[in-house]
Design a protein that fits this description.
This protein is α+β, with helices and mostly antiparallel strands and 137 residues long. 32% of the residues lie in helices and 39% in strands. The chain has a three-stranded antiparallel beta sheet, with no helix packed on it. A three-stranded mixed beta sheet has the order 4-5-6, with helices on one face. Helix 1 packs across helix 2.
Amino acid sequence: MQADVKWVEGDTFIGRSESGHNVVFDAGSDSAAPSPMEMVLMSAGCCSSVDVVSILKKAKQDFDSVEVKLSSERAESAPRVFTKMNLHFVVTGRNVSEKHLARAVQLSAEKYCSVALMLDKSVEITHSHEVVESQGK
């Protein structure tokens, strides 16, 4: 995998992936785009969410929504690396099995999510989850 990042102006950069996709980064205090560390946090959430959705589909769970709420703590001084991260999954659907959701989150955490598994070498990563019953239909 390859990519490049080009400085635009101020604290704004554009990353371009090998697949041709562009992402704007901004490390300034008045930024209009996510910082590199925010992107890392969201990348862990997205990577794990892909796994959870896939596993729940295979388990034939009837869900409308999967959201992961991410929280983190960073070191006080440079380098301001992540020290803790929590991924809290909220799945909304009809009769979604808490057991299936717990298993999906566990499999992502321990086996499939390459971003979180890579970060787990130096960051204390925790996972939590909840099922919300859909109203109607």
